[in-house]
Write a structure and sequence with these properties.
The complex is a heterodimer of chains A (243) and B (112).
Chain A lengths: L2 H13 L8 H22 L4 H12 L2 H41 L9 H6 L2 H22 L2 H5 L4 H32 L6 H29 L22
Helix pairs in contact in A: 1-2, 1-3, 1-4, 2-3, 4-6, 4-8, 4-9, 6-8, 8-9
Chain B lengths: L2 H5 L2 H8 L5 E2 H11 L11 H10 L3 E8 L2 E8 L1 H25 L9
Antiparallel strand pairs in B: 1-3, 2-3
């Protein structure tokens, strides 16, 4: 076994226990690799052959399960932050789309009953979009920025908040789509086709993003997989890219 | 020295290692060993996650660079990190004086 194989095998055991997507996971693994190579160089400089030097470096690094457990909070926090950023980035454009769609649609004659007033296209669509924007702002405030600093030792809490917020946002998006369906049945001629279709597609896309993000956050906060369930040939950690 | 004993003070020691200037992870590990005359020998794998935690708390800032043909993440203290280090020093001195007062052999007999 070569020196690189010893280090790759060790990093694979850590990688298999880590959640996360995007840049943070390979970024952390790259930093660990760099540290292991530095330690291996030191041992080689002290006279050990390459493979023995890598084994000594790995032994000093500690139990891979413990290292993965120490790294997990960073990845869980990143998941929460990424989801909150995505939700907040889509909030204003989506609200603007729905408000425009509502304004472009025909409100019809004034309604006598409360339900008749609420069911007129402009009011519920604009109200729901404003609600989504407000909710997203709350999610973002909880899961990123000042609170992630305040709860920097409690990333699972941020992940829970982000997942709950995303689920609520997805539920509201679904509510808008259902409401739109009812309005299509009740009076399709009152809806302005192009802006309403564009807003509906955007809401569906956002619903998918929120649902997937919530699932990833909940999976990340749930904890590492049972080592017995890890595949024998654990995936190789990504090689570090050049700066 | 036991790793569990050190862990409670790891953050302060890592911040202290960066006081003189930016360092990458392995250089910080070497500074911990050298600064403690080899007494502090943590599992090195605990240092990297701790640095990320300090970064998330805004106490250090990490940036990627290249030296010796290898990519390395270099950490530097932030202004908040310097303030945290000062606070850590203050509380350690108070703790150290109190513990020394109790553990050091007394020069006079106890009164009854």
């Amino acid at each position: 076994m070569s020196r690189d194989q010893v280090i790759d095998g060790y990093l694979s055991q850590i990688a298999a226990r880590l959640p996360g997507r995007g840049r943070t996971r390979p970024d952390i693994l790259c930093e660990l690799r760099s540290g292991l190579l530095d330690a291996t160089d030191d041992h080689q400089g002290a006279g050990l052959p390459p493979t023995a030097a890598a084994r000594a470096a790995v032994a000093e690094f500690g139990d891979p399960g413990q290292v993965a457990a120490d790294v997990r909070p960073e990845l869980v926090a990143t998941q929460a932050r990424r989801l909150a950023l995505r939700l907040s980035a889509t909030a204003i454009p989506l609200a603007a789309l729905w408000i425009y769609a509502a304004q472009a649609s025909d409100a019809g004659p004034p309604r006598a009953s409360l339900w008749g007033w609420l069911a007129a296209p402009p009011v519920p669509l604009a109200a729901a979009s404003a609600l989504i924007a407000a909710l997203t702002a709350i999610v973002a405030t909880i899961a990123i920025g000042p609170s992630i600093r305040r709860f920097h030792d409690r990333p699972r809490l941020a992940a829970t908040a982000a997942a709950l917020g995303a689920t609520s946002v997805a539920a509201i998006d679904l509510g808008i789509i259902i409401l739109l369906g009812l309005q299509l049945i009740a009076g399709p001629d009152r809806l302005s086709p192009v802006p309403v279709s564009a807003a509906a597609i955007a809401s569906l896309a956002r619903l998918a993003i929120a649902r997937r993000g919530a699932r990833h956050c909940l999976a990340a906060r749930a904890g590492p997989p049972d080592p017995r369930s890890l595949p024998d040939g654990a995936p190789k950690p990504a090689r570090c890219k050049s700066p | 020295m036991k790793a569990e004993v050190l862990k409670g003070h790891l953050d302060g020691m890592l911040l202290a290692c960066l006081e003189a200037g930016p360092r990458h992870g392995y250089a910080i590990i070497e500074a911990l060993r050298a600064g403690s005359s080899g007494q502090f020998d943590l599992p090195t794998g605990t240092v990297y996650p701790a640095l990320r935690r300090l970064e998330r708390a805004g106490l250090v800032k990490g940036t990627w660079g290249e030296s010796g043909g290898r990519r390395r993440r270099v950490y530097r203290l932030t202004p908040a990190g310097r303030r945290a280090l000062d606070a850590e020093r203050g509380s350690w001195r108070a703790f150290s004086v109190a513990v020394s007062g109790l553990l050091e052999p007394r020069s006079h007999p106890a009164t009854t």
